[in-house]
Structures are given as C-alpha cells and as structure tokens.
Amino acid sequence: xxxxxxxxxxxxxxxxxxxxxxxxxxxxxxxxxxxxxxxxxxxxxxxxxxxxxxxxxxxxxxxxxxxxxxxxxxxxxxxxxxxxxxxxxxxxxxxxxxxxxxxxxxxxxxxxxxxxxxxxxxxxxxxxxxxxxxxxxxxxxxxxxxxxxxxxxxxxxxxxxxxxxxxxxxxxxxxxxxxxxxxxxxxxxxxxxxxxxxxxxxxxxxxxxxxxxxxx
Amino acid sequence: xxxxxxxxxxxxxxxxxxxxxxxxxxxxxxxxxxxxxxxxxxxxxxxxxxxxxxxxxxxxxxxxxxxxxxxxxxxxxxxxxxxxxxxxxxxxxxxxxxxxxxxxxxxxxxxxxxxxxxxxxxxxxxxxxxxxxxxxxxxxxxxxxxxxxxxxxxxxxxxxxxxxxxxxxxxxxxxxxxxxxxxxxxxxxxxxxxxxxxxxxxxxxxxxxxxxxxxx
DNA sequence: CAAATGCAACGCAACGTTGCGTTGTGTTCT
DNA sequence: AGAACACAACGCAACGTTGCGTTGCATTTG
Lengths: 216, 216
Known about the structure:
CATH architecture of the largest domain in chain A: Orthogonal Bundle
Number of domains of chain A: 2
Region (Disordered) (chains A, B): 1-32
Distance between the termini of chain A: 59 Å
Oligomer: homodimer
Domain HTH tetR-type (chains A, B): 29-89
CATH superfamily of the largest domain in chain A: Tetracycline Repressor, domain 2
Pfam families (chains A, B): TetR_C_11, TetR_N
Protein name (chains A, B): TetR/AcrR family transcriptional regulator
Largest interface: A-B, 56 and 57 residues
DNA-binding region (chains A, B): 52-71
C-alpha cells in the first residue's frame, strides 16, 4: 500500500547519469530512474522474492516489455538499480585514531543494516547473494571497491604506529562487519549500545586475559 | 458413503500434534524422511529459489497434495526438514586451550560454509533468512542453541585464566563466525590456509601495534 | 525516418486449493 | 478367528492465479 513514502531518493533523480543517450554512454530506457526507484522501493517493501518485474513495470509506469528489452533478468535489473544507488556509498572516516575510525566504520555498517529504509534494501540485497549469481558479482565488486576505499584508514594507522605494518586490514574489517551481519540478520538480536566500541576494542586489543602477551 | 474425508483436522496439523506414529519418530506423512531428504537435496542443488514444492513431491515420490496437507508453505517444509538434519550438529570442541577451541570452532564453521554438500544447504538456508520469516525463526533458534552449547568453552577458558570473566562470549563467536560468512559468501573469496589462526589470534590478542597495552 | 516504447497475447512453470476416490491399518462385532 | 467397519493418510486430476520471459505489431517520440 505504501506509496512514495521515501522522499530522499527523489532529489537526485535527475542526476544525469543515464541521460546521455545521444552521446552514447550508458544506455537504458528513457525512464530508467523511475524504474530503478521502483525497483529499490519494491525490494525494500517486499524483499527479493517479492520483487517482481511486473510490479516494477506497474509502479514505474512502464510496460514490462521495456524492462525486458534492457535487462535480461530480475538480478540484472536489481544490479543496475543498485549501481546507481548512492545510499550505499559510505565515506570512509578519518577521526584521527584507528579506534575512532573503526568505530565510525562499524557504526555506519550497523546503521546501514538496521535503519530503514536503507536497511531493507541492504539486507535484502545481501541476502539475495545466495540466490542470484548476477547479484553476487555486484556485491563482490561492491565489497572490493569498499575495501579499496578503506585502505587509507589502515595506512594512516600504520603511520601512526597504531597498527603493525603486516596486519591484514581485510581481516579486521571482516571481523567487525561480519559480526554486525551475524548479530542483526542471523541472530536477529538488537545491537546493544556498546556493541560497536566493544567489538572494536576486542579486535584491537584482544579478549585474552592478562596472561603473557607475546610481543609481536 | 460418508464424505467427511478431509478438511476438518486442520487444527492439529503441525506443531503440537506430532506424536507417536508407527515409525515411532516425530511424525508427518508416512514418507516424511523421503520428503525431507528430497527437500535438502533440492535445496543444495538449486538454492532456495529453485526449491519448489512440486519438485520435492516429484523426487520423493509423493503427491504434492500430501505435502501441502502437512506444511503450509515452503518455508515451513524446509524448517521441518532442517530440524531433522543432523548434518548441522557441530560438537563444541575441547582442546585444552581457548585458542585451540576457537580455532577448532572456526575451522568447523569454515568447513560447513565451504565443503559440499553441507555447504550448499547451509549457505542457501542462511541466505534465505532474509526471505522467509519462518526460516528466520528456525535459524535464530539454531544460533541460540549453538551459543548455549558453546558456553562451556568459555567457562573453561575463564577458569584457566585465559579470558577475563566479564568477556562476552557471543561477541567473540560473532566476530569469528561473521568474518567467515562475510569472506565466503559476500566477498566470495577463498579462505586462505591461515585465515583461521589469524582470525583467532586477532580476536584473542588484538591487532593493535606494540604500543602500550593497558593492563586490564 | 528510426529507435524506443506500448500493447496484447502466448506458452510455461509453480503456486496453493479442491473434490473425490483409494489404500492401509487398526478396532469391533459376530 | 475372520469378516466388517472406521478413519486417517494418500493419490489423482483439475482448477484459477501469478509471475516469468517472449513475440508480433502498432504507436509514440526525438
């Protein structure tokens, strides 16, 4: 039932991304933005299974033939819609300390996974990875690109002496982000207030008791 | 002839009434085991979306009506099938040290997520959590029960002085298991040989550089 | 004009449901 | 004991519905 209850995607609707038809860049239907909006809206509302091409066509005021002429499948359509979605663009932080950066990073992730309407899109998309190889490819690229953008956080930390130079940044990110995913989606437990600082502290300082600490 | 053959025992279909049958086990259709097997097989083969009730009926040599008489939906059927699946029962380890236990635990998880055929079932099931609230409930219970069974690992570690008494065990498990999930499913990267020991070492000792370590 | 879109219909598969007949296994009644 | 019965479970066939993805042809639009 809910109609356009979002309202923040609208602003960037005319972002001129797919508008270059004559020039010959990225092609797409004339109303591609409407189609993408409808796709993400419906994904958020009904999940990946409930997302239907015919539903998208109806909401975006487009014939379903048009959609099929440009994208061969539901996965491809969603992939294209996500590519244009700025909602998942998270700026990597720079707070001055590694702990601060990681806390900001994890906090952003938790927010993305819990705060509607972005959370509906994010959770449904990541959950659909196991169903659509096409989507899986997009998600893989997304994570790879994100990792690249987060690299400076760790470079700075090494420069500050907060991190051993041979540390694997991806492992740290995976530990933190993975814990958030597991907690929110699989365990379906609320994220306590201190989840973020505790997780970061554990990853940085360890949970080991006060026994010996082998120096490097 | 009497024509009251069906439709009146709706109330006692699933749930409470699954008692003694000739087989002596938990009941359902006579060939429930065949049905469950077919369900998990097809799930592994085609994923959650490709899993169809009619496919299960065909493979298990049962009419689809029979399946619908006992389970109202695909999610319910899969939930029932998973309940009987012993493949996901992982014995919590007891190696003598916390590090050893956690490595064993994480190794089991990584194996479960990567080694067919169990991995197909596990990945598809966990991925389907975002699509079926019914399944989500089962998964939540599964994780809760697992956490309970893993508790002794941490109790022993505290007793040995390897872990501060106020440590949150679930956080450690979530960090490790979440990282595995993210690495395997979302990033779709291979798990390196030393992933397990490195992850455990990070969680126990921290990734912080050799600066000061605040002593408790 | 030509490309893009609209439209209507199609075959296909799976959904979930229904009515009715059949099987199998106990129970009861001579 | 053996025939008759009761009843739950099962099979079968068909139904209407939805969504998929496709096709041929008319119409709009730049």
